[in-house]
Amino acid sequence: MRASALAIALLPAAAAGAACANRPYDYSEYLVHVPRSILVLPPLGDTPLPGDPYAYLSTVTEPIVERGYYVLPVALVDAALREEGCRDPGEMRRVEPARLRELFGCDAILYVDLLAWGRMYQVLDTRAEVYLDARLVDAATGGMLWEGHGGIVESTCGGHQNGFGALLTAALAELFWTRDGHLRGLASTANRLAFLDPDRGLLPGPLHPDFERELARIRERRSEPDAPAAGEDEPPP
Amino acid sequence: MPREGPVRSAALLAAALGLLAAGCASGPGFRWDVYEESVYRACATRDDDPAEQARLLAAELERAAGEGFAAPPGVRAHLGWLHLRTGNEAEARRWFLEEKAAYPESAVFMERRIERLPR
Fold first, then answer.
1. Interface touch B109/A55, C-beta < 8 Å
2. pTM of the predicted model as reported, rounded to 2 decimal places
3. Which of A101, A151, A234, B67 could link A131 by a cystine bridge, Cβ 3.0 to 4.6 Å?
4. Is the ipTM beyond the 0.90 threshold?
């Protein structure tokens, strides 16, 4: 009996479809309105989900701070919105960006949808999956600056197992993966795929040490119409 | 929890692969996991002990400061909120002000929170 855990990362470009894979992301709007501060709302999850979407919230701050933004304290934001009368993330999402800006002083709002969050049980296979879709919206205009996706699937089904071995592996997975901690670990990976992708992720933010240089580089690349897009081959000389 | 050899190995293998799959989120500097655990317990389980979490987070801030690393965005404010929930309004005010001083981006929100504190 052998436990085979197979981790498959779903790349944001691949998930969006092969046609989009090589086209560079259009950062036009974003470059005009790079925010300093980002309000991350508690995520929405498709129901029914096996896991609690709130478990995701603890993972979202680090990668965005790493990218160079001020991220408002997520637990305190959740508490403040509840004090304002929002009973759940669905109601929080319906608050107008301008009102959120008034309450929190944020430049932009990040809306996260968990399209997958939890464990799925299939015959002879247990899968843990996190898949998120995120949109960054300018708080003053309500306009969308950026959107991205990222996900990861981890499966116990490796192939070389007899029936009993597979059932035992699934039982172990149940014991181990019952904890939100595992999903939160997978979420960290999904976040990095979505937010930190060098070609389609968040732009470096104003608190990033290389902010000016990185933005100059991106603007320069965009102003060269014949420059190869990310992933494409160089044109012949 | 499994105790015997091959069964435990399978669990350990899954744990190791889980770590790899999750990526290496911590490096030198401020340890995010203390803050993230506090956020998780407060928001997801809704069953945290604010006094204990405040103690743990303050210890991490002190440890990181000793190595020359400042607290990242939101962490001081979160500590203030933990203190508020234990009834320690003076410490709440202190940490909201420290967040505002460290990150002027937080000024609007921190001022609102301070206004709501009992005088």
1. no
2. 0.81
3. A151
4. no
